[in-house]
Specification:
single chain, 496 residues, alpha/beta, Aldehyde Dehydrogenase, Chain A, domain 1, Aldehyde Dehydrogenase, Chain A, domain 2, seven-stranded mixed β-sheet, six-stranded mixed β-sheet, lactaldehyde dehydrogenase (NAD+) activity, Ald_DH_C, Ald_DH_N
Length: 496
């Protein structure tokens, strides 16, 4: 660790601090939260277990700082963000190393996440200067019955204090995707990172701190979600919640009352493979899309819906790709690394055993060591199996054989999870028709589902989310419209 850049985030005890009003502090609770290395199930780090009183102080500091931050010129906010980008990239390795140990992400992919996050921050700064700087002027006489006596000036103003809650699988990238638009729009931010991923997020927050942000503009709270989660999301000083995760997000929505919310939740992303598809291309994307980061991505291929006529050939090609995947430690950049926790591994195993008991065919032997599950392609999955509907969030790809494209679309639309999907066909007209019929947030044509590029709109339907992300959409989420109406004096004369 670079002592000059990261030294003040670490307490003498070895535990990582939290950030309140520009100061790195230890919690008055005297307690810490252990972060387990998924590969060893041993404690890799500890972070502060913040109290409710400290949560109050964080929100009060953020609220106090917000008005001055909102008056900071757009160009100046952008200048801060560009500086953060440079600092993150110059000090990326400790962030990447933490990702390897906390969430078992491959070393190469961990570093890529940090660099991509810096790019997202700078792009947000540029887009924010342009889009946030635009207003609108409306004249009253464009509405029937009105004369030209009023002018409406519509402007974009910040919401206030934004609570940002990213997930374990992308604790840096999905944190900055919330933080950068919120700050650029003139809000202040309270960040609650996931427990697994909190240290990487702490390193990331240090880049914002070192960039010279005014105290209270960005704050970091750590602790167990079970102890302070509800207190954070229902706090009276919260003006917006941006959350990425699973079922917890639905509970937050029910408690959020009038607070604007941006939710990216679970996905059961289907891959429809048509009879005319390029099967080599489809197989390559199924392997990459289904097994990257051990399938622990909201945009992973979670279910293949293959037309019966090509299913045998497709499955054989996918099996060949799965059999070639490396399995091992994230430090060695293995394709398949341990999943995040024992509870996650147990859940995945339950889905596999349910499918096997009901007649599905496992094309590789089921093998598990601790949290490490070897990749599995499971054929002949049927709608009565849990794997046909539930999200494993692990290195398991089920295949359902369908008689028609319509059957595939019906299965896609019957699931309450509707984040992304993809379709493989050589017929562009068919691709558009199928995409139009799939009731899901994004459909990729001839490629696996993917979140980025980060400026693309990104959203889920039904239980997969509320609101749209992507840089411009997130900027729009972080503001409200204010109208100032000028009432013009009427002339005392008439035009001849």
């Amino acid at each position: 660790m670079s002592t000059d850049f990261y030294g003040d985030i670490l307490a003498a005890s070895g535990s990582y601090k939290f950030l309140l009003n520009g100061k790195w502090l230890e919690s008055s609770s005297g307690k810490t939260v252990p972060i387990l290395n998924p590969a060893t199930n041993q404690t890799a780090y500890t972070v502060q277990a913040c109290t409710r009183e400290e949560v109050d102080a964080v929100f009060e500091g953020a609220k106090k700082a917000q008005k001055a931050w909102a008056r900071t010129p757009l160009w100046k906010r952008a200048e801060y963000l560009h500086k953060v980008d440079g600092l993150m990239k110059a000090n990326a390795q400790p962030m990447a190393d933490a990702l390897v140990k906390e969430v078992a992400k491959g070393a190469k992919d961990s570093l890529t996440e940090v660099i991509r996050s810096g790019d997202l921050i700078s792009y947000t700064a540029e887009e924010g200067v342009r889009w946030l700087g635009e207003g609108q002027m409306l004249m009253s006489d464009s509405f029937p019955g009105q004369d030209r006596s009023k002018i409406c000036l519509a402007s974009k103003v910040p919401l206030g204090v934004v609570l940002a809650v990213p997930p374990f699988n992308y604790p840096v990238n999905l944190a900055v995707s919330k933080i950068a638009p919120a700050l650029m729009a003139g809000n202040t931010v309270v960040l609650k990172p996931p427990t697994q991923g909190a240290v990487a997020a702490t390193h990331m927050v240090q880049a914002f701190h070192k960039a010279g942000l005014p105290p209270g503009v960005l704050n970091l709270v750590t602790g167990k979600g079970s102890e302070i989660g509800d207190y954070l999301t229902t706090h009276p000083l919260v003006n917006c919640i941006s959350f990425t995760g699973g079922d917890t997000g639905i509970a937050i929505c029910k408690k959020a009352a009038m607070v604007p919310i941006q939710m990216e939740l679970g996905g059961k992303d289907v891959c429809i493979v048509c009879e005319d598809a390029d099967l080599d291309l489809a197989a390559k994307n199924i392997v990459k899309g289904g097994f990257s980061y051990s399938g622990q991505r909201c945009t992973a291929v979670k279910l293949v819906l293959a037309l019966e006529s090509i299913a045998d050939e497709l499955v054989a090609k996918v099996k060949k790709g799965v059999d070639a995947l490396s399995v091992g430690a994230p430090e060695d950049n293995a394709a398949i690394t341990p999943v995040i926790s024992k509870s996650s591994a147990d859940f995945i195993e339950g889905l596999v055993k349910d499918a096997e008991a009901k007649g599905a065919k496992l094309l590789q032997p089921y093998k598990r060591e601790g949290n490490l599950i070897w990749p599995l392609l499971i054929d002949h999955v049927t709608p009565d199996m849990r794997l046909a509907w539930e999200e494993p969030f692990g290195p398991v790809v089920p295949v359902v054989r369908v008689k028609s494209v319509e059957e595939a679309i019906d299965h896609c639309n019957a699931n309450n999870l509707a984040l992304q999907g993809c379709v493989f066909t050589r017929d562009v007209d068919a691709a558009i028709r199928i995409s139009d019929a799939m009731e899901t947030g994004t459909v990729q044509v001839n490629s696996a589902p993917a979140r980025g590029p980060d400026h693309y709109p990104f959203q889920g339907f039904r239980d997969s989310g509320i609101g749209s992300q992507g840089i411009k959409n997130s900027l729009a989420m972080m503001v409200k419209i204010k109208s100032t109406v000028l009432n013009l004096p009427q002339p005392s004369y008439t035009m001849g």
